[in-house]
Amino acid sequence: MSAVIDTPLGHAADHDDHAHPPSGLMRWVTTTNHKDIGTMYLWFSFTMLLVGGTLAMTIRAELFEPGLQIVTPEFFNQLTTMHGLIMVFGAIMPAFVGFANWQIPMMIGAPDMAFARMNNWSFWLLPVAGVLLISSFFVPGGAPAAGWTIYAPLSIQMGPGMDLGIFALHIMGASSIMGSINIITTILNMRAPGMTLMKMPMFVWTWLITAYLLIAVMPVLAGAITMTLTDRHFGTSFFNAAGGGDPVMFQHIFWFFGHPEVYIMILPAFGIISQVIPAFSRKPLFGYASMVYATSSIAILSFIVWAHHMFTVGLPTAGLLFFMYSTMLIAVPTGVKVFNWLATMWRGSMTFETPMLFAVGFLFVFTMGGFTGLMLAIMPVDVQLQDTYYVVAHFHYVLVGGALFAIFAGVYFWIPKWTGRMYDETLGKWHFWLSIVFFNITFFPMHFLGLAGMPRRIPDYASQFTDFNQIASLGAFGFGLAQLLFLYIVLKCSVFRKGEKAPAKPWEGADSLEWTHLPSPAPYHSFHEQPEVK
Amino acid sequence: MNRVLGRLIGGLLLALYTALASAAYRVNFQPPVTRIADDIYHLHMLMMYVIVVIFCLVFGVMFYSIYAHRKSVGHKAAQFHENTTVEIIWTIVPFLILIGIAWPATKVVIAYKDTSDPDITIKATGYQWKWGYDYLKGEGAGISFLSTLDTPQDEIYNRKPKDAHYLLEVDHPLVVPVGKKVRVLTTADDVIHSFWVPAFGIKQDAIPGFVRDTWFRADKEGTYRGQCAELCGRGHGFMPIVVKVVSGQQYAQWVAEQQKKSAAATEDTNKQWTLAELKARGAKVYAANCVACHQANGKGLPPTFPALDGSKIVTGSKAGHINRVLNGKPGTAMVAFGKQLSDTDIAAVITYERNSWGNKMGDMVLPAEVKAARKK
Fold it and tell me: Which of A123, A159, A220, A520 has CA atoms 20 to 30 A from the CA of A149?
């Protein structure tokens, strides 16, 4: 409560809304403060990242050699399913919401989110959902084992773990929808005077668009999983041909959610990168308006490409051609964004502190993921690659090298503002280099495995796939260990409070409101008085 | 010095090439054996050339910029931040490249979907966890059999060394003649599976309650191996597809043999079996269908996979035992083997279970009893 230098009315004004805020556990349970809630989202997502990562280490240990050594095939399917569900819904999505909570109010000059109490509820739903999901391991039949995509009719065969998973997804979906309503209302209504939409930081733009995507598609997932629930227990036959239903309809409904979902997971990453690269290039973002239009195009196009996940289902020729063309088309706005980031760097004056290392790493690795995505868009090639390790390689390149690296970049970038302390730059660089090297060792060979004919979601494989699997497993162990280093770096900075005190603007080229108008750490309540934006 | 260096580099490249060329380090598709697979191979190569060029351009620019435009070498930042012309160019040019790719891709999509005028039509049914083949039309029509993984459990559990076709071998492969158009209908009995043979360039989901199709014309004799390509439960990695492409003459011979065998199988139902004969046959059926869950020693993996040794059902009435094997136990992993196995095989495996390990029922079940039980 000490650094309240932004309130011209003085210290007293800050006290009259809550003279004695609760401390200890109740502070966190009852908080409506966007900074506290952002912190909780980030720690929740980091915990889930480590849980999901442990499942991945187990998977890669089993896949080190052909033959079954460590787990049964049923449990292996639980591991792959839960790894996917935990990483998508527990790690990546909540991490970006954590960034949204911390950053959006500060970046638009608002004192908090529009619906501060609903914000608290949005967060606290998540640990409940997380417990429900993870507890599925301990019920008869174990955790859901139908892949994170839970296709029918396999999902109908599963035990009660599937029902727990469905309830957890419902709760997480509700949390996302409430969070998105909050984000849209905040951005559209609470910007400081002078901050027109086309003057907002790109991070705010990407979250505005992401929030609309979430509201559009989370209810669709809710529909699909509710139909799965009723097929399982209440005698319906939505996905059962014998009762007049169609298993493929599940896929259509799921992927109508699923494809925008992957853009939901990458657009905020694009936003973070659009903040970091200009700051460390000491140059404004190139083509701001184009970036807004490109992001919007990606979001709109994301609704008409879903069946590229279903190229082998037996769609008619016209359908195959339509979805192939629309999917190829998304490469255009995505390419525009990559070129704009490059043009931002071009003829800048760059330094390579850890946030910039991760941002450049993102550009390299995400673009490679984009290339393999374009390859998969070509339907006849996808016939050979669908459900193989080539797809696993592709989505890990875009989700780990893309989304996760952007999250790392954002944490290193903003942690001085959040905690008032600089992270350890040497350790941060170690984290980057270890991560990018081991990441590539893990996932690059998987392209070859897919091309050679190795299917995905198998606990055991034919002998000719051994060597690349061993390389991938070793890489995975290295990558996993490197994230423990990140845990130490974050703890050292935020909890142990070691490291030099951060100035208000540690990054020379940073120019958004949180850097120019707020000290480090940012005060518990900021922008009581809205700043004037020129 | 240069000569030594040159030889060293040459040697390394040779080693790299040899390693890459070996099966263990395969970096590209398997050699195509059909026209479609060949088209797919070339589409992929075309895409790779485009991607590599764009990769070099984009990252060339990026790494040059990282090198030259650094504060530490004294480079001062320019302040330009938009250029409509350049934005238009780097929107239009990629769009044109995509059109260049879409044109050949479209041709292959259309060819891939053309299943008309086949010489032979075969239905492939996905089961948990094996394939069933029914030759429906053309030479060989009427032939019907199941194709199950026959890699021994000992190899899977690391008790014996793995052979060359580990996990990619079956008891009864699909046999087709070379150079003939084969239309493959796919369906499934339980959950979604997918019929995939990489060398043919085909992958078609097998969906319960629906019939979809794909086609291939193999141009070279040989044995081609694929796997199920849609997660279908615990056995997803253990239900391969093996296709033997043989000459027209060998195919005709095989068809004749199969037709003799199925005539013999019909006789089986009415044959005078002895307990020993049924038990011996049952041991084979058990090894192919039951051992993965109930284990070779009959002790199972309780509670999910109950023990058969000393089980109430196995040591109970024959009727109850037959019912369990024929109809499975809904809500559990015990499937209805009545759909997958013949009367003789079911009778044999039941007889085997009732007279193995600690079970000494001394009775046998005849194929005719199983047949009668089906009608109920």
Answer: A123
Interface of A with B in 405-464 (CB under 8 A): 448, 451-453, 455, 457-464
ipTM confidence score = 0.93
Query: What is the residue type of B69?
Result: H
Annotated active-site residue A435? The verdict is no
Integer distance in angstroms from the first to the last C-alpha of chain A? Answer: 29
Count the Cβ atoms, other than its own, within 10 Å of residue A421. 20
The edge-to-edge listing of strands for the beta sheet with B241-246 is B174-177, B241-246, B222-228, B193-197, B202-206
- CB B370, CB B343: distance < 8 Å: yes
Tell me which of B24-33, B82-91, B161-170, B324-333 is least confident: B324-333
Strand locations in chain B, DSSP E? Answer: 120-127, 130-137, 144-147, 174-177, 181-188, 193-197, 202-206, 212-217, 222-228, 241-246
Of A176, A180, A186, A520, catalytic: A176
Distance, in Å, from the CA atom of A37 to the CA atom of A41, rounded to the nearest integer, reads 6
- Model confidence pLDDT, tens digit, residues B226-274: 999 999 999 999 999 999 999 999 999 999 999 988 777 776 767 888 9
Tens digits of per-residue pLDDT, B105-142? 999 999 999 999 999 999 999 999 999 999 999 999 99
Cα atoms in the Cβ-side hemisphere of radius 13 Å centred on A100:
35
State the DSSP code for B183.
E
Residue A215 CB-density burial (10 A; 0-12 exposed, 13-18 middle, 19+ buried): middle
DSSP H or E stretch at residue B215: strand B212-217
In chain B, the domains with their CATH numbers are 27-70+83-114 (1.10.287.90), 120-266 (2.60.40.420), 271-374 (1.10.760.10)
Residue B330 main-chain phi, psi, to 5 deg: -55, 145
- A494: which 2 tokens? 């935020």
Question: The pTM is what?
Answer: 0.91
Per the annotation, the verdict on A456 as an active-site residue is: yes
- Of A247, A336, A343, which is closest to B207 when you measure between CB atoms? A247
